[in-house]
Amino acid sequence: MSLYKRLWLAVIFMLSLVFGGSFIVSSLSAKAYLEEQLRMKNADNATALALSLTQQGADEVLLELTLSAQFDTGFYEMIQLADPEGQVTILREDTQAADDAPAWFIKLFPITGEPGIASVMNGWQQVGVLTLRSHSRFAYAELWQSTQKMALVFLVAMILAGILGSYLLKTILRPLDDVVEQAKAIGERRFITIPEPKTLEFRKVANSMNNLSARIKQMLAQEAKRLEKWQREAHVDKVTSLMKREPFMKGLEAALDSDDVNSTGSLCLIRLSGLMPLNQKYGHKVIDSMLGDMGKALNKIAVEHSRWAASRLNGSDFALMAPREMNADEAAREVQAVFQEILENRSMEHDMSLPGAATIYEHGDGIGAIMTRLDSSMLIAEREGESHINIAHKGDIQLTTVREQMGEWRARFEQAFAEHQFSLAGFPAVNTKGEILHMEAPVRMELGGEIISAGRFLPWINRLEMSGLLDQEVIDLALRLIEEKGQPVCVNLSVAAVVEPAFLNWLSQRLAAHSNAANMLWMEISESMAFRHLQSFKMLCNRARDHNVKIGIEHMGHQLAELGELHDVGVDYLKVDANFVRDINDNVANQNLLRNLCTVGHSIGVIVIGENVRTDEEWETLKEIGADGATGPGIKI
Fold it and tell me: What is the pTM of this model?
């Protein structure tokens, strides 16, 4: 029972107690007063009537006529005249019950007035004793009317007290609603703060909970800085602040093995031709400053796009991985342009050329083949001109233009949506005991009788801005799969699920219509999209919680500096990007990084899952550092 109801019951009980006590006291007081009035009236009437009879002499006929006339007035219950020996000579009595008040009321408050007694004389001789008792029905009528009025007054008072009490309770308990909401949010792993109420007791509770939320937020911020520092030391080139070669290559390899929108895109290589002579001419300090500016410019390009990554592969080679970018030369020309501007600002444009090479990579390509294509294209670019960019096509076959490909893919997607040619695959995500957490369900599409992976068509569906339709299709497929198999299913959602307001309303309707299946649905958004659209992501999390859907962040680990922003989001799980999981059994830096990430995740009540685990050694290492689960080709059930 809620506190509000308990307080209301207490108020009602107290008012009822006060009313009952007042009613009883008032009724008993009125009863006693009326009984006293009856006694006095009986005594006065008896004395007056006895005096009147005395003055009439002892004539029996006159006595009886006088007493009968007096009784017939209707005010008396009994008039009796007894002789000196106690024998009743005249008796007039009304035996009818009082009907001016309910029987239960008369029974509850019986009125017993003492009769009036007086002597009737004839000179100095006593004729008899007169006993008189007034009728109590008038007293009952008066007591009943006064009780009704008192009850009405108390009823009105209780109604007014209820209205006033309701207002006061709402006013007093309004801060409690905020405290309850904060407690509920903390239970949902959302460490929010609220204004401290004026009520002392509530203020103490709110202050304690605010301090808890503040400490969690501060802890997350500190751990985020520490994690970012370790990540930079292990993965970032000190001169350019770009990713080192090894983590960059692991990221590329993870992208090629992945089954999502990032498994297809562009990879470009820009070479600083003539860097060695510049070192000799200007000195390392000047050149390092120039390389630092180039690194900042390249990082700026990368952070403006989801999951793009930049690296300094060696002294003079810079690389940019651009997932979902299907124009291979655009990313390369953008990098080349910012590098050229930096050289011009330093008046070095004539001392160095910027040849480049670019290619399209696809899901399943090998790193060796891609880098061979780029190296061959770079040699051609260096021979053809100072800042020429050469495009390396897979198999040396000229691809159709992007515009033509977009037209072809649009027709394919329209047919696929119309004929529901999408399906879900299934890969287990397990906990440390080998129990299934959920089945990862990447989307598949039928194309020309062949089932193709998400990595092949997701870049085009995003480019054609049809990802919102695909999200709806995926949710419907997942709910049906849960109802058929009875297993938890996890689906990946695009940025459209976060930024399009209409999707939230559609999602609520679907989940409400499949409430049982919704309890076993898991949804996840990529790290870059979650942090880029944090407020919208919070709204999606709130909507998911309303329907008991678990929600998490995938590809976690690239924006650790923003980890503190999760203090009031309330996610259920984090999936560590495969880039950090790959060969983690031999990578001490990544072990330390993920160990602390697991600690931070557990401190806010979320589970941490490793992505794309390939070997038993990787899985065992993840268990040792505190991961709660894993998924990938190396996971078997």
Answer: 0.68
